């Protein structure tokens, strides 16, 4: 099939591109003008840059395609509600309009959404039809974007499938898990090789970015996927202590489980951050950034990672967050990284090899 992937220079987009190429499909890539297309150029792909508000440019990106994978979006809890809605919601509408105009014979439109549409799950494992209760501007914008895509399915027959990834990690990731990894590295460099930790905590599921790409390939060619959303997470949940060890063991940090429940601690911490005025939070983030830059200079690191205190991301760790993936499994999904501990170990090795961490 002829497949167009937008947001193709990003973490998820590049993984989706590679997954379709490995499956034998022809891929066209798109991203914002001025993006770094070097890795895509090395793959000898057709590349058509376009902004999400460039309606004529978007038509060129989707023309003649069998599959469109809409990855492009803004993942930043600190961004304004207006910016998030413009990119994640209105951007989706613009791509759908382009498809209706320039790719009337499209076989599949794949929306990369987020488990953030559920907000804090009512129960775990969280199923695709469970209540949607987004908590912040980012989650609300992702739900609005997904709803817009399904609106085009219902009103215009656009063959839409939505994928809802959970917490994504993997090589090249600069956010999420990478913040924990860099923080633990800084802790080890400046404080101790022993980390006080919790003896209990929330259960979570994660997903390696390569498996997000593989899931896109699975739903692209299965007619049972049309008109449906699918959770993407690895099949093996991790308890709170197991998650901490999955991050600390490869870093050479010894963990002493001597503190109370991780969920309770993070909930209290998150609440404190929430009521703390912006100025102190900005001071802490500036302090973390300065210390990390110092570590990068001392150890010859690339400074690709950034440290910052992010209340909304920490919120994912204040309670159970794991998702039912049986629907995706029934379509034939085969995980390359079913165990997050193994995937995180491999990711940390990549960070070291590419001098992102000491």
Q: Could you please describe the fold and organization of this structure?
A:
Helix 1 packs across helix 7 (209-220), helix 3 (55-62) packs across helix 4 (81-102) and helix 4 runs parallel beside helix 5. By secondary structure, the protein is α/β, with parallel strands linked by helices. It is globular. The model is unreliable at 267-278 (pLDDT under 50). It is built from 13 helices and eleven strands. Helices cover 45% and strands 13% of the residues. It has helices at residues 11-22, 38-42, 55-62, 81-102, 137-156, 177-190, 209-220, 240-248, 262-275, 278-299, 311-314, 326-330, 340-353; strands spanning 2-6, 26-29, 46-47, 67-70, 108-112, 160-165, 167-169, 194-198, 206-208, 228-232, 254-259. The termini are far apart. It has two domains: 2-169 and 206-234 and 322-336, NAD(P)-binding Rossmann-like Domain (Rossmann fold), CATH 3.40.50.720; 177-203 and 238-319 and 348-353, no CATH class.
How many β-strand stretches? 11
- Write down the CATH topology of the largest domain: Rossmann fold
Structural category is alpha/beta
CATH homologous superfamily (4th level) name of the largest domain: NAD(P)-binding Rossmann-like Domain
Q: How would you characterize the largest beta sheet? A: 7 strands, parallel
What overall form do the CA principal axes indicate? globular
Compute the CA-based radius of gyration.
Answer: 20 Å
Mean pLDDT: 90
The low-pLDDT segments are 267-278
Residues in helices, as a percent range: 40-55%
């Amino acid at each position: 099939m002829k497949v167009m992937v937008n947001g193709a220079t990003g973490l998820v987009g590049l993984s989706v591109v590679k997954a379709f190429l490995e499956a034998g499909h022809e891929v066209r890539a798109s991203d914002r003008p001025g993006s770094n297309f070097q890795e895509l150029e090395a793959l000898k792909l057709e590349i058509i840059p376009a902004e999400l508000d460039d309606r004529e440019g978007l038509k060129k990106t989707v023309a003649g395609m069998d599959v469109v994978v809409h990855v492009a979006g803004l993942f930043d809890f600190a961004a304004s509600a207006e910016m998030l809605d413009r990119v994640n919601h209105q951007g989706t509408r613009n791509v759908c309009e382009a498809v209706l105009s320039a790719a009337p014979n499209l076989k599949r439109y794949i929306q990369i959404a987020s488990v953030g549409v559920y907000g804090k799950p009512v129960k775990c494992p969280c199923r695709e039809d469970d209540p949607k209760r987004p908590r912040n501007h980012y989650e609300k914008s992702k739900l609005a974007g997904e709803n817009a895509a399904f609106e085009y399915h219902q009103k215009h027959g656009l063959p839409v499938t939505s994928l809802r990834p959970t917490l994504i990690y993997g090589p090249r990731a600069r956010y999420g898990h990478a913040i924990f990894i860099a923080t633990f590295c800084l802790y080890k460099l400046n404080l101790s090789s022993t980390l006080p930790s919790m003896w209990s905590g929330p259960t979570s599921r994660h997903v390696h970015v390569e498996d997000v790409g593989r899931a896109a390939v699975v739903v692209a060619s299965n007619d049972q996927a049309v008109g449906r959303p699918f959770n993407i997470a690895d099949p093996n949940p991790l308890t709170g202590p197991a998650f901490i060890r999955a991050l600390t063991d490869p870093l050479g940090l010894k963990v002493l489980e001597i503190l109370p429940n991780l969920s309770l601690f993070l909930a209290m911490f998150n609440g404190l951050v929430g009521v703390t005025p912006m100025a102190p939070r900005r001071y802490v983030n500036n302090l973390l950034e300065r210390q990390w830059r110092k570590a990068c200079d001392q150890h010859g690191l690339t400074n690709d990672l950034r440290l910052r205190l992010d209340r909304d991301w920490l919120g994912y760790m204040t309670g159970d967050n794991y998702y039912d993936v049986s629907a995706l499994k029934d379509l034939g999904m085969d995980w390359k990284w079913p165990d997050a501990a193994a995937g995180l170990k491999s990711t940390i090795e990549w960070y070291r090899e590419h001098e992102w961490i000491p």
